[in-house]
Amino acid sequence: MVRWDCDGGVLLVGCLILSVLELCSSGITSAYVRNDDLSLDMPIDSDVFRVPPGYNAPQQVHITQGDHEGKGVIVSWVTPDEPGSSTVLYWAENSQLKSRADGFIRTYKYVNYTSGYIHHCTINNLEFDTKYYYEVGIGNTTRQFWFRTPPSVGPDVPYTFGLIGDLGQTHDSNRTLTHYELNPTKGQMVLFVGDLSYADDYPLHDNNRWDTWGRFIERNAAYQPWVWTAGNHEIDYAPELGETTPFKPYTNRYHVPYEASDSTSPFWYSIKRASAYIIVMSSYTAFGKYTPQYKWLVKELPRVNRTETPWLIVFMHCPLYSSYVHHYMEGETMRVIYEQWFVEYKVDVVFAGHVHAYERSERFSNIAYNVVNGLCTPISDQSAPVYITIGDGGNLEGLVTNMTEPQPSYSAYREASFGHGILDIKNRTHAYFGWHRNQDGYAVEADSVWLANRYWYPSETSSVAAI
Ligand SMILES: *[C@@H]1O[C@H](CO)[C@@H](O)[C@H](O)[C@H]1NC(C)=O
Ligand SMILES: *[C@@H]1O[C@H](CO)[C@@H](O)[C@H](O)[C@H]1NC(C)=O
Ligand SMILES: *[C@@H]1O[C@H](CO)[C@@H](O)[C@H](O)[C@H]1NC(C)=O
Ligand SMILES: *[C@@H]1O[C@H](CO)[C@@H](O)[C@H](O)[C@H]1NC(C)=O
Ligand SMILES: *[C@@H]1O[C@H](CO)[C@@H](O)[C@H](O)[C@H]1NC(C)=O
Ligand SMILES: *[C@@H]1O[C@H](CO)[C@@H](O)[C@H](O)[C@H]1NC(C)=O
Ligand SMILES: [Fe+2]
Asked: pTM of the prediction?
């Protein structure tokens, strides 16, 4: 189906050596060759979509962080037949003492679809770095899962994040998730950069595809938190179908701890996790000057204490820098408003999805332009974040392969393949990012980079570690 182009591989390495000698200053466009078959959705009767047995059995179980520090967990699930109970029973490993937390239920209608009973329950004040078991569906049928809370927040706490975007529910989506699960560098939390189920690509935005997607990701998302941002496929705005409330399925199904960071909306918020401070932004909610999102971020950025959380990570759905033709410059308005702050506050890395391919930037900025001075070319800037586009989870719309030429100087590496990323924070100065293309299995990194923390190690530039 796909093959590695040997000549291309040799050329890449050649260019890399040359670039060290500064004879070849441009970035890498991978010569990897694949066929461009559209990836098909897994059939509705696939194993990954199976409904768990038992009357009213909880399904689509998923967790996310439930507070600002990592001592809280939000557990969400759906009961199909009757409301049942929104209570979660939980207990620490090696403890007989079961505690309970009570949640709430949401239901919604979309065109002629009626949702099951969607439960959200926040568990607070857990111990750090502890394995907990939990049980949902108190009543007719119960199911048990577990999770591990993160270590206490601190500057040198190692932590490993998985990066997945634009996942959908195709055979490639399943490959991406499987490779993430099998990756020898074990991700402890997924930062999901938006576009979840792609239900809106079906007639009437068939919301059953939201349910199948929830069952598909349960095998991972019930055991480790996934952090959400809304993509364009979460908008589900369809006035022609009488659906005029944007984000209706998404907000009913995915509950996030926005209030814990003084946000007034689930679309933008922040969490701390180990040595990282993670800011979630929304590409599809107003973000211009004076809007609630803007006002929140004005207050939020100065609150980040890099002595406590050295790693400042931002993510949203639409990339600010992308050199693919598809979606070209869609992130430009957000870039014009926010890029200067990302540089000023020395954000380490900005992740995004949307473009169904992979790309990593150099540390570049483009913030000097003032309409009349003509300074509108991106320049090398060691205070700038690295921008990583990772919208390559594998959805039914397929890859985008058409790139702008020549490759712009800000673009360090680009390749149109499905895959996932791992951000492995080692300590306050060093983190390692690897991108794993699906075709090579889980263990091979097609692109990787050592990130030097912008606050603690600003003198060190990031360098390519391996190909
Ligand atoms: C999805 O991947 C899992 C884990 O590799 C596998 O067990 C399952 O059979 C796959 N399902 C489909 C429909 O490909
Ligand atoms: C909704 O309408 C579509 C198209 O008419 C139909 O195929 C589907 O079965 C309906 N679903 C429900 C739950 O009525
Ligand atoms: C489910 O549990 C409720 C409350 O315990 C009970 O009234 C009901 O009969 C049960 N339903 C089934 C199908 O077992
Ligand atoms: C930043 O965090 C450190 C370590 O937790 C703490 O000692 C310091 O007081 C904090 N600084 C501010 C301004 O809160
Ligand atoms: C790629 O993009 C260029 C520039 O927009 C366009 O001219 C060309 O037709 C596109 N090629 C394909 C195969 O889509
Ligand atoms: C931080 O991690 C890097 C990479 O593992 C290592 O080389 C460096 O020595 C570590 N720094 C400290 C202070 O341990
Ligand atoms: Fe997408």
From this structure: 0.93
